[in-house]
Design brief:
The chain has eight helices and eleven strands. A seven-stranded mixed sheet has the order 3-1-5-6-10-9-11, sandwiched between helices. Strands 2-4 form a two-stranded parallel sheet. It has a two-stranded parallel sheet with strand order 7-8. β9 (208-212) and β10 (215-218) form a beta hairpin. It has one domain (19-256): Class I glutamine amidotransferase (GATase) domain (Rossmann fold, 3-Layer(aba) Sandwich). α1 (40-52) packs across α2 and α1 (40-52) runs parallel beside α8 (224-241). It is 30% helix and 16% strand. The longest helix is centred in the C-terminal third of the chain and has 18 residues, at 224-241. By secondary structure, the chain is an alpha/beta fold. The protein has helices at 40-52, 77-83, 86-93, 115-120, 125-136, 173-178, 184-194, 224-241; strands at residues 19-23, 38-39, 56-60, 69-71, 106-111, 140-144, 167-168, 198-199, 208-212, 215-218, 247-251. The radius of gyration is 17 Å and the shape is globular.
């Protein structure tokens, strides 16, 4: 399959910059006491790619100002850059609620991952309504890992799931087992399939991204760099032509195998 490559065409900035919403969880710990939050890699790469291409990026959280990080790898330049970016830190800290934003102002809604996403995103009616409004207005939807849970209840303007007939990827059971999670991957995969999606996986803990029309999904934090490039490619095509319609899948050999399960219990640092 053709590798997804980052497109460097300038986005039309003659008017108002395109807006993107990066959805993050507010769950700091799961019901069984595990550390939750989002992986910084999930948000650092899309943030950097979008900002470099002129986008206005907001963080969106079911609870205002309660966004939580669950894993940080300071050896990663993109994550260090995010932590050193005062605008990024401020926007993350003051993450807005979906019902405070006008959905049709957004050209992209991206759901970051983390186990907290499983507990929170599908049950947030305000987030589902926001995402639905954005999608029905033509926005690209994207997710990584467990963030795909945020897409489960989203319908198009005809009342059909945005996942129906689409190919997607998400966190596989092999990864969740190594993380010693209680079966969320099985439940999430079932929910995505029930909504009409075909769920496909790459090698555990390695980059894997699937693009199907205006839907972009990544398997895990290791996919974040490829995912960011795919998001730029798809949003450029959609805003320019109203496309695309083809399916593209990328599984890259990993030069960044994400910090992974053994380090998870240490908390915010990997």
């Amino acid at each position: 399959m053709t590798p997804i490559e980052s497109r460097t065409q300038d986005i039309n900035q003659a008017t108002v910059p395109l807006r993107a919403g990066i959805v993050v969880t507010s769950i700091e710990r799961t019901v069984d006491g595990r550390r939750a939050g989002c992986w910084l890699a999930d948000i650092a790469y899309p943030w950097r790619a979008l900002r470099r291409n002129g986008w206005d990026v907001e963080f969106i959280c079911p609870r205002v100002g309660r966004a939580v990080l669950g894993g940080v790898d300071r050896s990663d330049p993109a994550q260090r850059a995010f932590l050193n970016d005062s605008v990024a830190r401020q926007r993350f800290a003051r993450a807005t609620a979906p019902d405070l934003e006008k959905a049709t102002d957004f050209s992209l809604v991206y759901f970051s991952g983390g186990v907290g996403a499983l507990e929170e995103l599908p049950d947030s009616q305000s987030l589902t309504s926001f995402t639905q409004g954005a999608a029905q207005g033509g926005a690209v939807l994207a997710a990584t890992g467990h963030g795909a849970a945020g897409l489960i209840r989203v319908n198009d303007r005809h009342g059909i799931s945005v996942l129906n007939g689409r190919r997607v990827t998400t966190s596989p059971l092999a990864e969740d087992r190594e993380m010693e999670l209680p079966n969320p991957a099985t439940d999430l995969t079932h929910a995505l399939s029930k909504a009409g999606a075909s769920v496909i996986f790459g090698d555990p803990f390695h980059p894997h991204v699937v693009v199907d029309g205006p839907l972009v999904t990544g398997q895990n934090p290791a996919s974040s760099m490829v995912l960011a490039a795919a998001i730029l490619s798809v949003t450029t095509a959609v805003t320019a032509t109203g496309g695309p319609s083809s399916v593209d899948e990328t599984s890259a050999s990993s030069t960044r195998r994400w910090c992974g399960p053994p380090l998870w219990p240490r908390g915010t640092e990997c």
